[in-house]
Write a structure and sequence with these properties.
single chain, 19 helices, mainly alpha, globular
């Protein structure tokens, strides 16, 4: 970073080292070195070196291998999470005021980085498509790629009428802040502990992956929509709207839909599916109204995806772990294993609560990194917010999908049997301690 704040210049490696030291000082439990929190913290920081290695051509292949290994550890950790029943209370080494100060300082530095750094190709592609929509021009066939879906150019086009030339950077910063606020409200409303939400938000803003991809608006927007879908999980229609927008921005939230439909069941699932259809209709209508060429609606909707890059043969232009192996056909058993994992997470256990939904959603997003052919493993921002929720969450078995009132026997068997219902403030000390047993 260079320019604002005056005289500030922090390159990628320096940012990684400083943020790692700061994160360790705030979150590392020095009195319990072998705690699960410390292992999770080391795992969260392990992906940053891989991102740096990928940015250097001579180390790129090793960087993809590094990220592939780190992603594997993430998936194992998420699949083992339901076995870890005890959630001990592990606070941070800084109070709420200090965490709030760090969050504001991190946002200032991220704004500086977003203004000065060159925009990633995915954001530039979405911005150009949005400008073509506003101008009524057709999209050249050579410009289509797998960088975004139809919602991204619609958002860019709408914001460009207000933010003008600052549109992509402004949307990226707003998306990062939206993720942080979503984590804050998730801690307050779902975890019944506002301090946990502030800790998650601060760690997200300090994490090296957030700074490395600070301008990747199209990659942060889906994460923001997904986090807020969890915050609003008690309202299936609202969660469906948010997940529908996430699916329209990038492809990977599509794999969350079976999990959410299974979570809501027959009653809430209908409202959830209805909201998805509403989002599809609104996006189609917006594309029709914002262009003078309605006949190209199908191409503008699904034509932004170049399905050729998903072929198993691979190409010289593709960069990622599978390009280092020299044979993309090895992805076939990986894709089969991913489909089986997704089906298992969707149907087991039959009666789900919020713990299952958070962990399964994070595992589904992490799993896409294994078979995605273009720089798979690099996109830590896709799943970083959900992994933070898994790491910091208490027991959430009392948070079930909306349904008929519980009987007296079911209420008595719930872990949270007394006190105010979760999600109303931070609750009493006894109630919060009970959530972590």
């Amino acid at each position: 970073m260079n320019g604002f704040p005056p005289g500030c210049h922090i390159d990628g490696p320096t940012w990684m080292y400083l943020s790692a030291i700061l994160i360790a000082a705030v979150y590392f439990r020095f009195n319990r070195v072998w705690s699960l929190r410390n292992i999770d913290l080391l795992l969260l920081l392990a992906g940053a070196p891989g991102q740096l290695l990928v940015s250097h051509p001579q180390w790129r292949s090793f960087g993809y291998i590094w990220l592939f290994g780190v992603t594997s550890l993430f998936l194992v950790r998420l699949l083992l999470d339901p076995v870890l029943q005890r959630r001990p209370v592990l606070g941070q080494n800084l109070n709420a005021a200090g965490l709030g100060f760090l969050s504001v300082a991190a946002i200032v530095l991220l704004i500086s980085a977003a203004i000065q750094r060159e925009l990633p190709a995915s954001t530039t592609s979405a911005l150009e498509e949005g400008q073509r929509i506003l101008g009524g021009r057709k999209t050249p066939e050579a410009d289509v790629d797998l960088a975004h879906g139809p919602a991204a150019p619609v958002v860019m086009a709408g914001a460009s009428m207000i933010l003008k030339e600052y549109t992509p950077r402004g949307i990226a910063i707003v998306a990062h802040v939206a993720v942080a606020l979503g984590l804050l409200f998730a801690g307050r409303n779902l975890f019944s502990h506002a301090h946990l939400g502030l800790a998650m938000a601060t760690l997200y803003l300090l994490h090296p992956a957030t700074a490395f991809d600070v301008g990747a608006a199209t990659h942060v927007l889906p994460a923001a929509f997904i986090v807020w879908a969890f915050v609003c999980f008690r309202r299936p229609f609202v969660s469906g709207l948010l997940l529908g927008l996430a699916c329209g921005t990038l492809f990977f939230p599509l794999f969350l839909l079976p999990l959410w439909l299974a979570f809501y069941g027959r009653r809430g699932g209908l409202r959830f599916a209805t909201s998805l259809l509403v989002v599809t209709a609104v996006l189609a209508t917006a594309l029709v109204m914002m262009t003078d060429d309605p006949n190209s609606l199908i191409r503008k909707t699904i034509g932004t995806i170049q399905f050729q890059i998903l072929q198993f043969e691979g190409s010289a232009s593709q960069r990622g772990f599978w390009s280092t192996t020299g044979n993309g056909w090895f992805r076939i058993p990986v894709i089969v294993a991913y489909v089986l994992m997704l089906a298992t997470l969707s149907f087991w256990p039959r009666r789900k609560h919020l713990e299952h939904l958070i962990t399964a959603s994070a595992a589904a997003i992490v799993g896409t990194q294994f078979w995605y052919p273009v720089e798979g493993g690099v996109y830590l921002l896709w799943y970083l917010p959900l992994v933070l929720m898994v790491v910091f969450r208490p027991r959430l078995v009392h948070l079930t999908p909306p349904g008929p009132p519980l009987s007296a026997e079911e209420l008595a068997s719930r872990p949270l049997a007394s006190g105010a219902p979760a999600g109303r403030g931070i609750g009493s000390v006894a109630q919060r301690a009970h959530l972590f047993r």
